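Lab meeting prep.
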Amino acid sequence: MTRIQIAPSLLSADFSRLAEELHDVEAGGADLLHLDVMDGHFVPNLTIGPAVVKACRAQTKLLFDCHLMIAEPQRYVDAFLKAGAGMISVHQEAEPHLQRALQMIRDGGARAGIAINPATPAESLTTAIEFCDFVLVMTVNPGFGGQTFIEPVVGKIRHIAQMIRERGVPVDIEVDGGIDAATAPLVVAAGARILVAGSAVFGQPDRKAAMEAIRNSVSVRV
């Protein structure tokens, strides 16, 4: 059975009752929590900042996976580290000094990730993959939850997995966008091990059952 980690995306939670939502997914078996940070500039939406991350930190023991969909991410890395992030990913498309940003994250005690958009080729990781702990592959265009999974990205995930094997580096592949029980087997078969699920978890009345459905789809079909 392939071991995967499920990261419910806070973007799809009910923000009027965040503490309850966090307790619910933690009790339901989530492995970590994915927090989408958007600035209305790099992506066309505004979401949360370090203050919300810090407030959430007090409500759960789940590892916080902060996905910085923002311009100039180096300026904010330290704030998210102090707020309690255990994983931080920065977009390759937004950070011209990628290795420096990744080292800042690692120096702060968190796992460092490179995030790439659907149209960004796997080859763009060639000079940076050895400096990160995980690659976050977007299977929708970032900015909004509830979008349709872009299936051609599966080939890119497979390519990145091959690159990781060839280089022998301890890098995980995380996938974000349109993940549910139908699409999870596709990305896991390609090499993904961390699955971000928004509406497929928070959009369901029974979050534990929703996460179990994703896990079962992988164990049955992979």
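Slide two material, second protein:
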Amino acid sequence: MLREYVKYTSLNVLGMLGLSCYILADTYFVAKGLGSSGLAALNLAIPVYSFIHGTGLMLGMGGATWFSIFKSQGAKERKDQVFSHTVVLACSFAVLFVAAGLTASYGLTDLLGADKMVFEMTQTYLKTLLLFAPAFLANDLLLCFVRNDGAPQLAMAAMLGGSFSNIILDYVFIFLFQMGIFGAVFATGLAPIISLAILSPFFWCQKNSFHLLKSTSVEKFRMQWHMAAQILAGGIPSLVAELSSGIVIIVFNVIILSLLGNTGVAAYGVVANLSLVVISVFTGIAQGIQPIVSKYYGMGEPKKRQTIFRYAVFTVAAVSILIYLGMSVGAEQVTAVFNSEGNQELQAIAVKGIRLYFTGVAFAGFNMVSAIYFTSTDQATPANLISLLRGFVLIVPLAFLLSWLFGMTGLWLTFPLTELLVAIIGGEKLKNQFQCN
């Protein structure tokens, strides 16, 4: 079991780290090429990326979880039904995102709080990102299914290939072609297309055990809404995990704009983007255990799936210590990389933020692994509870309360306090479940 755990989680963590370079590369190159205004515009647009990516993960993780369960039970027709329904759902969301890009980018930019200085750049980023949504959704969906179909190496290669191409294209479009903010988002939009190209041999060589249904009977059609609901319910924790980053960024941006203006938002952009990379490590661990836990759930092996969960918790604890030590000691140097203008105010805000904000990484990792564990064992209620508490219910009111009481210090501490409270709740639910088994 340990070898299987290491194989899936290590490959997935590497892939997710590469995937997170979408935003990190944009942050670095935008900061170098466009300064603090470009950095503020990018930070205002990040929540939309989180929502698109979160929707893709919701469909991919929700569908792939049921695919893995049916695969372990030898239910071939059910596997194809799950995949077909997931594809239909992805197409529906893709239409909505593209329509929003064509008709609502101006309103979304205004809603996210962009002022005159950064409005045009923010709108350009948002509109282009939404038009590339079908590629993002298709990539997220197929990565999850390919991973659950016994090819985690290929999934990792696709994620890394797309991400590294994003970094190269960022440099080419922003600096060589002088395409500005459009160059950054265009590079990001091309990355999932390159990832899909890397995945394509898996289907050409017919290694996949999931297929689109060629025909649908009346009985299967009647099952459609029930199966769609199962897919969505199973993927909600993944959506909320991504959305929580976007929601937190929106709320923090609103509060910071009132406290410190665009310089504060740019400083928070450094912290937020570093957070996306850190969270991607825990996402990789959580998504890595999902195929194994779902398999053992389908086989009726509770002890084995609990052992896998304990491996994941130990990994989260060890990684969290290393991350916090690295962030705390290297806060000055890390911030300086993104502070191309040498803005001392931005530097001071971001350094303090890094050292306070990242005290919550261990609790965040535990919560993400717990939510995916519940999802993988067909327990949507506790999974959704954990995800909603950390993503919306607790963090939003705490952000306003703590910032009102303690200013920026309180705002930085919102994330660790929220994750700690949710970890206590999630720990109790896990304890009760483990005792029952």
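Talking points for slide two:
Residues 2-436 form one domain.
The chain has a mean pLDDT of 86.
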